[in-house]
Amino acid sequence: MTLWRKILLVCLIVIGISLLADFVTGKWLTRTQPLSEAHKIERLTDTTISDATVIFGNSRAELGYYTPALGNHVYNYGFPNQSFDVMCFMLELELKKQQAGAVIIDVHHGFFEHDPQTNINISTFLPFINSNADVRNFIKTQGRYKPYYSVPGMRYYGNYTTYLEPLLAHQQQGDENTYINGGIYANESFSKAALARRVEKKKDKELYFTFDAHKDSLLQQILRQHPERTFVFALSPYHSSASATLVNAYAMLQYFAGLDTKYTNVIFVQADAAYPDNYLKDTIHLNKAGAQVFSAALRKQMEEKGIVLL
User: Fold this and answer.
1) CATH number given to 36-122+133-142+171-304
2) Domain range list for the chain
3) How many other CB atoms sit within 10 Å of the CB of residue 296?
4) Model pTM?
5) Contact status, residue 229 vs residue 191, Cβ threshold 8 Å
């Protein structure tokens, strides 16, 4: 066999392996894998899938809103680092379905903050760049698009382990977490020692709610354009040490209470009080027990305001 034939054979083998890896990843590790963030985008882009109530937000939403306590037809679209821009894009996909269910949005001090490099996990969107124009345009407008993302066999390069990590973690953790309808719920409380270390780190920390006029305008436009949907802005519980770090908490509460007053399809609710340590995963996240209690209370508050959850 000549040198050129050997080189050609090696190239064909590499291409074949790359295409096989691409197929396996796209078939079993992304769209159809319930533990992956990409599966949540798959649900949103599939117009045949609808839920009576949907939840958006970062990891606080993913861990803190226990779907069975809220209703039988609730799906949790929360995932880590879901910023305002990412949430708005996901909302656009959801609102195209033209249903009438409630939309629950978790709020926090960094509600309007966004950094494309930090808040866009490209592996979440890669499987859809070739098949969905909305996803492709979003990634491009955020400056995160690279030409090879559209090339089968190359697009997942550098991201294969990202898709495998949730599966491996799930296998290793056993019964540590419960996975239900998009939510991930920690079955154990944070250890007292670990919680004490977190509290100490937050002792002198100062955080601020920052209003963004442009993003506020985008949000209010969504609220106006979809009077058929009820938007529930909810402030889930923090540990008292975390709450104390927010210097201008009143400004945040006033902003969301203002949306409640201004729009008939908006309500703002918050946890009644700080939750005990045994309801916490850490200083900013609830564990399963805390999520169950908070979600039951949230459902009650919503029903008192006339929102029926199925």
Assistant:
1) 3.40.50.1110
2) 36-122+133-142+171-304
3) 14
4) 0.93
5) no
